[in-house]
Amino acid sequence: MTPFSGIVIHGLKRGKEFGFPTANILLDQTDATIEPGVYATELTLDNEKHQGMLYVGTRPTLNLSKRSVEIHIFNFNRSIYGIQIQFYVLKKIRGDQRFNSIEELIAQIENDQAAIKAFFETNS
Fold first, then answer.
1. Which of 109, 89, 87 has its CA nearest to residue 99?
2. Average pLDDT over residues 36-58
3. Which architecture characterizes domain 4-114 according to CATH?
4. C-alpha dihedral, 61 to 34 to 17 to 26, nearest 10°
5. Phi, psi of 106 (to 5 degrees)
6. Torsions phi, psi of 60, nearest 5?
7. Is 89 helix (H, G, I), strand (E, B) or coil?
8. DSSP string, 21-79
């Protein structure tokens, strides 16, 4: 399994607004091909392993078009801007999709998080 790596950069802070703060990643690999969607991910930060929820896509519900790579790190609350992280894409949960409202998006993120936590419980 090949790791991806990148620097944590400032995003739009919408994840935080929705209750799921994310680390936005500027990938080192210019040829990085991660299909749009939501994934279970494991990452290394300061030589510590963490689990999280990776999103890759254009955030269609927010009417944005720029590709975003961002990770909601479970049980984590530190400022890590400018730090290099390495992560592994473990399991695709679903593809990228547009929702009719922010409330529907948040409900789906909650479902995604539950599915990913269940994945880690059975695969760790």
1. 109
2. 93
3. Beta Barrel (2.40)
4. -120
5. -65, -40
6. -60, -30
7. strand
8. --EEEEES-TT----SEEEEEEEEETTEEEEEEEEEE--GGGT--S-EEEEEETT----
pLDDT in tens, 78-122: 999 999 999 999 999 999 999 999 999 999 999 999 999 999 999
Structure tokens at 10: 């400032």
Whether pTM > 0.85 for this model: the answer is yes
Give the three-class secondary structure for 118. Answer: helix
Domain ranges of the chain: 4-114
**Higher local confidence (pLDDT), 77 or 109:** 109
- Residue 10 · residue 24 · CB < 8 Å: yes
Helix (H, G, I), strand (E, B) or coil at 94: strand
Q: How far, CA to CA in Å, does 99 sit from each of 27, 104, 106?
A: 26, 6, 10
- H or E segment and range at residue 88: strand 84-94
Owner of token pair 């990938």 = 27
